[in-house]
Specification:
184 residues; 5-stranded antiparallel sheet; alpha+beta; 5 helices; 5 strands
């Protein structure tokens, strides 16, 4: 019988069994992690599908346009383009000012507007737009910054609804009032 302090040679087969046991443990741990990643990936895919569905729903019911931080049109949905009478290739790369009445992109107030947006500000108002045929179109919209992974805005998105008929009604109701006021 050997003493506890005496070294005994480990047979080659024991080393192989130990190596195999270690490999099995590594395989089990990796399999567990792969299964966890599969669950995480499925959750991420479901979340991405949900977000995509929400964006599709917004695009079906709202006018949507994307702008560079300096105000040039990047993209617009069909509702936006149809309302203004443009095709995307006609306005892509053009300043937002092209779609407004009496607005110069070099104007300091216009530039400040876009600087505020680029700094992360939200802008919400009714905007008087110029359609391709020169007609007046009114939209109620919000300009919202889109943030990159670094938390810094990299583009703007405008969500809007057409309020032209409301503005026309307000103008029509105001006509008799203005005539009456001038008469007195």
């Amino acid at each position: 019988m050997a003493s506890l302090t005496q070294r005994r040679p480990i047979p080659k087969i024991a080393k192989e069994i130990g190596t195999m046991a270690h490999a099995v443990e590594v395989f089990r741990a990796n399999s567990q992690r792969i299964a966890e990643l599969g669950v995480e990936t499925a959750r991420d895919l479901e979340l991405a599908a949900d977000y995509t569905g929400q964006l599709d729903a917004i695009s079906m019911s709202q006018l949507v346009a994307e702008f560079a931080l300096t105000g040039e049109v990047i993209d617009a949905n069909e509702k936006f383009l149809t309302l203004l009478g443009y095709r995307l290739e006609q306005i892509a790369g053009q300043p937002n000012a092209k779609l407004l009445f009496d607005t110069d992109p070099a104007d300091k107030a216009y530039q400040q507007y876009w600087l505020d947006l680029a700094a992360g500000a939200f802008k919400n108002s009714e905007y008087r737009r110029r359609s391709q045929n020169g007609g007046e179109v009114w939209i109620q919209s919000t300009f919202t910054p889109i943030l990159g992974l670094d938390g810094v805005p990299y583009k703007m998105v405008q969500f809007a609804t057409d309020v032209t008929s409301r503005q026309q009604t307000i103008a029509a109701v105001g006509q008799p009032w203005r005539r009456w006021r001038r008469a007195i």
